[in-house]
Amino acid sequence: MSEARPTRAAPSAGEGRRIARVLIDSPLPQLDRLFDYALPETLGEVLPGVRIKAPLRTAGRVVDGFIVEIDVEPDATRTLSEIESVVSPTVVMPDRLYRLARRAADRAAGSASDVLRLAIPKRQVRVEKAWTPVEETIEVDPDAVTRAHEVITRYEGLAEVLAQSGRAAVEAIPVQSGSEPGWATLLASAAARELADGRSSILVVPDYRDQELLLAALEKLVPAAAIARHDARQTNPDRYRAFLRTLDEAPCVVVGNRSAVYSPARAALVAIWDDSDPLLAEPLAPYVHARDAALLRQEQEGSALLLVAHTRSTDVERLVQHSWLREITASRRVIPNVRLSTPQELERTISQRVPSSAFATARAAAADGPVLVQVARPGFAPTLVCASCRHPARCRECGGPLGARRRGAVPVCGWCGRSAHSWRCVECSSDQVQLASSGTERTADELGRAFPGVRVIVSDGAHAVQHVDGRPALVVATRGAEPVADGGYRAVILLDGARMLQAPELRIGESCLRWWANAAALAAPGAPVHLVGVDGPVARALATWSAAAYARSELEARMPLHMPPTARFAQLEGIPASVRGALDALGGIGIPADAVLGPVPIDEEGRVRALVRFPYAAGQEVADTLRASVVADAAQSRRGRGRQRIPLSVHLDILEPDI
Q1: Which residues pair with 475 in a beta bridge?
Q2: Is 195:139 a contact under the CB 8 Å cutoff?
Q3: Which of 170, 381, 426, 608 has the highest CB neighbour number within 10 Å of its CB?
Q4: Confidence class of residue 349 from pLDDT cuts 50, 70 and 90?
Q5: How much of the chain is in helix, strand and coil states, percent to nearest 5?
Q6: Distance (Å, rounded) from C-alpha 81 to C-alpha 25?
Q7: Confidence of residue 1 (pLDDT cuts 50, 70, 90)
Q8: What is the CA radius of gyration of the chain?
């Protein structure tokens, strides 16, 4: 262990003394280890997991930290600093949380303090002083337990997985229960079952829309006192109050976004909805995906793990093929009524955005209730082209795409937001633009004229709509922003599918399948779902509701190319010398040269980027080696204080390799 600044007076030899091993709360990689400090008797009884302040040798600074271990050292002659103060006697970092953070950081070549920063909110003194721990068991209504059991038995083998604390990939039934989708009812039922047996659950969802749906389903099954909400939109006091609730002995149900997977609750169940949603990928170092953190937690604590979705991500399919996850499907499968475009309609898609069959279906369904129309983009016209030569209209300042906020409006850059008052085409010098795409607002405007007397509702990032009633309406929504309708939509029209599939992304096929399947699941039983202008494997997978088979075919196609998730990838960024040094270190542990892509320049500051492919079996050795390179680079940067230096950064398990 590293030593800290000397104390003023040390006990004589042979007396022994209490020492604390402390994790410093610092972003510096070289401080990601335990430091030994002396515990003065004046602090009284101190427990592991509390917040403390301690001196750091550098310039006599006082830093925050957490006590990880407390021990008695027989030899009291060693020079150690003393812990300066205990910030609070509340144990906010139980041992299980530290071990999870340590494992997650080690797997991702990161720092444990970065993970703990996601898990433990900042202290709120008033909230902590008013906190009274709940110790008694929360009672669940017997009728609610019965309803929860009925939902669980709809899935073949799910009750056995929960009882045996197993791991499963669950295909959610695409039906609604009242105003809640089937997946929300399933997760709420599983949590209610665990709560009735006196156990806690952690339910992780991608965003606030899913969280609201899940909370609505939970309120019908479990008492409000048992629900601990983990939400980035909460005020700091509310978030800290919910965090303290998860420290109680009384069981609870934690509901939150990706960082909720680190909740300190003693969870018997961890469930994640829609694991392939990119919002579950942590954008902050060490970039641990919520799914990976949940897998580590299940292995460490022995809790049940459910990965629930309408589709199957290739990451989950790989685990299924390795028998790490058990497949769970409904005892009686429900398949949406998906209709694909005919060959004739596919030929006319360029000139006719909504084919006659889909239009007729929407007209008939709109007389009975709400109709969902899914589009690719928000706004009026996200992209413009030259009216003369069809060349894309670009901003003169930054080169970004120009769009229009309404018909006849001055074009605006989608990147920098500047207005292009005197735009001219760089190809033909024309000053006339033409609408090249339709967003939610333009689609709503056009459909509003085609469906006179029918209300039109727009739901996208700028117009958040969570729920619509069962009255006739046209709901135009972007992917992922579709509101839930009472009784389900009477018809679903999926537009812009061909445009979505054109995105240059490795996972675009499974992403499109997920977007379309989640929208199709909002349809009423038997209601038609039109996928417009798309054919091929993704369309057939949606029509036959066979996402698992599609994921298997994707894995087979990626296997010869060693693309994710058949292999792991690490992304390195920094100055050329730092990146080259890290690559040389990887070569020293047997990573071949043909597994490295780059380095290539990425900006004007001199940074370069490299990608490294490696097998799962070498994962820990690669992570340890890269972490050592990061620490060495940071130490060298510290020695050269006079000049600013770009640090070496490492990101493991990137979703989209880009070089």
Answers
A1: 372, 457
A2: no
A3: 170
A4: low
A5: 35, 25, 45
A6: 17
A7: very low
A8: 28
